[in-house]
Amino acid sequence: MRKINNIKIWVLAAIIMIGQSCSESFLEVDPPFQISSETFFNSEDDYQQALIGAYDMLQSSYINVMMGEFASDNTLCGGENANDVPGFQEIDDMTHGPVNTQLQDLWNWMYAGVNRCNYIFEFRDKTDFENKDLVMGQVSFLRAYYFFELTKWFGDIPMPVDVRVSFGSVQEYGREPQSNVYAQIESDLEFAASVLPDTWDEKGRVTKGAAQSLLGKVLIFQGKNIEAATVLDQVIESGVYDLYDDYNTLFTQVGENNIESVFEIQYSNIQGAGFGCLQCSEGNVMVGFSGIRGYNGPTYASGFSFNVPVQDLVDQFTPNDGRLRATIMDIEAYKAEQESQGETVTYGEGWEHTGYYNHKYIPRTGEAFQDPNLTNSTNYRSIRFSDVLLLAAEAHNANGNDDKALEYVNRVRARADLNDLVSTGGILEQEIQRERRLELAGEGHRFFDLVRRGEAADKIPGFVVGKHELFPIPLVEINVAGNIWAQNPGY
Fold first, then answer.
1. Is the pLDDT reported for residue 269 higher than 90?
2. pLDDT tens for residues 74-122?
């Protein structure tokens, strides 16, 4: 098989009929190249190449992770100044509207992923070959992943299935109710889980456990806790996954694709991007964006000081929590420590400087990158086993099975060198959510956890109930659709 993380299918990227420019609608009128179905999907190799093209758009989801953090109460946007990436600043301040370049990018790039998957589904029956279900299972997971990201952000969305969307057909699709989107996601994930293996020799491909874990999360988002507990228990009891021993190296390149990794987005240091086409990067753009501004010294490389943790997040950790130093980089403490050893450390202060940086995704010296800002090869841990344990704990607590909930949450706490919880009922419910915040800080989950639980208004400054649970459909998309799509409330 081909390396999932190192191959860019440039021709396929052009034929999927999706605009890739940061300024275009997700529907491109005249794609520059097209390959006729008569000359493609004629062999297993064609399907495999198309599959890699579908995986490829995962790398652009770094923007989902960043915005999911500073939309929450975990971090501030940061950057160089108040005008550095205005769309980011607006989301951080809860002042965003339907004209927002970064929300447009998220919409474009996730629909690009959907369309690449649908291209394969459109011709799934053209050529038969051994183990074709393995290809289709991966495609099913990827489509579910992209749809889930879209419905998390935008709610009711257009939902083309098994067919590519072209400019001329956009008006055929209304905004599908979120319940129907979830039903499609569930169907795709159930099929994927039924045909995919527990493991692959090649890292980065979707597994049965990844499909089950994402299904469990989707069920919890809908309040289907009984069903979620069942499917998440299957992942936990499979024996395929466990918690990685060393949290301090869990997010470094040394710790990639370890036993805790249920689904990990693969990045490389291949050059090929610029600020005019960030989604073209094979590297994890979030890493450079989260780096220390103007940094000179050992261990780290300089970055753009976005996504800076706030004091409230730091204060939630107890001093003996083994996750604290791996999650939060305290620049002043680090500088003092290094200078006591004879090293020199200098850095600049960016906008909204808090003195803290996201230590999970930060450029480090000695790691693989050509440009530390755009081509850092640090993978994004999209689904970790600890996330699965905490989701399962939440589901069991909601179902009244607190013994099982405690078993799962205390596995996570034990890895952090913390004592077992003994709480039950509503107190345990809040303790589980606190553990989710601490365990998953910096990974893009917090905002959606708060929203789905109805707690966002109490935690996020500027959050307006009835409006900010969803983000606005980009105005250009509504215009392209002939204004047949209603905007989300409040925008």
1. no
2. 999 999 999 999 999 999 999 999 999 999 999 999 999 999 999 999 9
User: What are 330's strand-pairing partners?
Assistant: 356
460 contacts 438 by C-beta, under 8 angstroms: no
398 confidence band (pLDDT: 50, 70, 90): very high
In a shared domain, residues 16 and 165: yes
Rounded CA separation 141/189 (Å) = 6
Do 163 and 35 belong together in one domain?
yes
Give the residue-averaged pLDDT of 3-17. Answer: 37
CA dihedral 442, 448, 453, 458 (to 10 degrees): 70
The sign one gets for the Cα dihedral 104, 106, 109, 110 is negative
pLDDT classification of 483: cutoffs 50, 70, 90: confident
Question: Could you tell me if 465 and 359 lie in one domain?
Answer: no
Question: How many other CB atoms are found less than 10 A from the CB of residue 264?
Answer: 21
Which of 363, 5, 404 is CA-nearest to residue 205? 5
**Whether residue 392 has pLDDT greater than 50:** yes
Same domain? For 163 and 37 the reply is yes
3-state helix, strand, coil in the chain (%, to 5): 45, 10, 45
What average pLDDT does range 298-315 have in this prediction?
96
Domain assignment present for 116: yes
Q: Are residues 350 and 465 in the same domain?
A: no
Are both 296 and 165 inside the same structural domain? no
pLDDT band at 57 (very low <50, low <70, confident <90, very high): very high
Structure tokens at 383: 């689904």
What is the arithmetic mean of pLDDT over 206-223?
98
pLDDT class of 369 with cuts at 50, 70, 90? low
Instruction: Let me know how many helices (H) and strands (E) the chain has, helices first.
Output: 19, 8
Distance CA(317)–CA(389), nearest Å, equals: 20
d(CA 142, CA 154): 18
Q: Which among 364, 399, 421 is the end of a domain?
A: 364
| CA dihedral sign of residues 388, 315, 68, 55 | negative
From 320, 338, 364, the end of a domain falls on 364
Q: Count of domains in the chain?
A: 2
Does residue 326 have a pLDDT over 80? yes
Q: Do 357 and 469 lie in a common domain? A: no
pLDDT at 271: 61
The answer to whether residue 86 is domain-embedded is: yes
Nearest to 22 by CA among 285, 350, 307, 382: 285
Asked if the structure places residue 125 within a domain, the reply is yes
Q: Is residue 161 part of a domain?
A: yes
Please state the pTM of the whole predicted model: 0.93
Distance of CA 18 to the CA centre of its chain: 21
Phi, psi of 160 (to 5 degrees): -65, 135
Residues with Cβ < 8 Å from 407, sequence gap 6 or more? none
Provide the domain limits for residue 474.
1-133+154-174+461-491
